[in-house]
Amino acid sequence: MTRRRNVYGPVPSRRFGLSLGIDPLEPKTCCYDCVYCQQGRTTTLSTTREDLVPVTDVLADVREALARCTPDVLTLAGSGEPTLYLSMGELIDGLHEMCEAPVVVLTNGALMGDPQVRSEASRAEIISPSLDAGDAETFRRINRPHPDVDFDAMVEGLRALRQEASGRYLLEVLVARGVNDAPVHLERLAALARSIEPDAILVNTPVRPTPGRRQLALDGEQMQRIAAMFGPSAEVIAARETAHARPSTALPRDVLAVLERRPCTASELAASMGIDPGDLARTLQELGRAEAIEQTVDGHWCISGNGREKG
After folding, report:
1. Mean pLDDT by 10-residue block, N- to C-terminus, for the chain (311 residues)?
2. Domains of the chain, earliest start first
């Protein structure tokens, strides 16, 4: 049986440029089961840290990927919550040894009450935890956390991380239509986010397909009004054009590795992977005929069965 690759992309990140994704988890392993998640429902809801993949395997995949691409950042993310990887600190150290690109940890922040987790995450140059709710009731409704995750303890963990992390601390807030965009909730959330004192507050909205839900994204004007509520350090995450420093071949395995983690349009895939659009089109057709992937009505490609509605 072919070993599942622990690296995907690089993919265009609206936050960080060209991002090589590093994913040492089994899909989908997370402390939350967020209603807006592009990965769909959480299959393993857990707060237990463990190593399902040896660090040596993960680093070997990264080394192979770096031979064919030059990413702007190395991002721990993908099939769930990266802080659940028990050897996260060792992995970050290994990444620093093989590449000068900054390491980013995208985390939901659920485990930041643990001093060991904070210590390991703080080895990254950029830490970007998320906060989608201003109170415990809304937190349970939106993020649907594991029963062991306490809202107040999670928030205190985010505050402690702010004090301990020496790198950039970017707090991401995701606002979804009809989910957490009511003015009274946004006022509570904005006050809480400001109290953590991050370097910046990144205000986001779901722009990729969310299995089982539709039209969660807010428009640009709405997002600008919402960002203003969070103060001068807040900014709306805007789409970014990225360029790949080295072209690569549209190998089906590489395309599938990206789509296993996130739906993408053909143009996003081509730009992020440095693939000729014609070459990519042939690969997408091949995978489509094999019923390995499908296209949603809004033009995103995803693994078959993960789309909301075929185009």
Report:
1. 74 82 90 86 94 94 91 90 97 96 97 97 97 95 96 97 95 92 95 96 80 72 94 80 44 77 77 68 83 84 64 39
2. 7-246 (3.20.20.70), 247-311 (1.10.10.10)
Give the pair of three-digit tokens for residue 30. 């997370």
| Per-residue tokens: 54 | 């040896």
